[in-house]
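Predict the 3D structure for this chain.
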Amino acid sequence: MTADIEQIKKKIIYRSNYRGTKEMDKLLGAFTNKYLDQLDYEDLNELIKLLEIDDNNLYNFYNGLNTNIEFEDNKINNLFKNFQYK
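Done. Predicted structure below.
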């Protein structure tokens, strides 16, 4: 299980830092760097789901704008929504 979690973390780090837009690379990179080691297996899977969403909808969700999709009310989405990028 530990090797599996480490593999998932590597995948998350890559997907959060190579999005397609520089702004989202920085935002999601900083977000995952802050929280990655604090998350359990279930949370990591929720984070993967978040990272599968396109940049435009993620950006709009983060900034409180309208999105084309419905975001679940879960721990990861709430952490991301309330994350303060510095």
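The longest helix spans residues 2-17.
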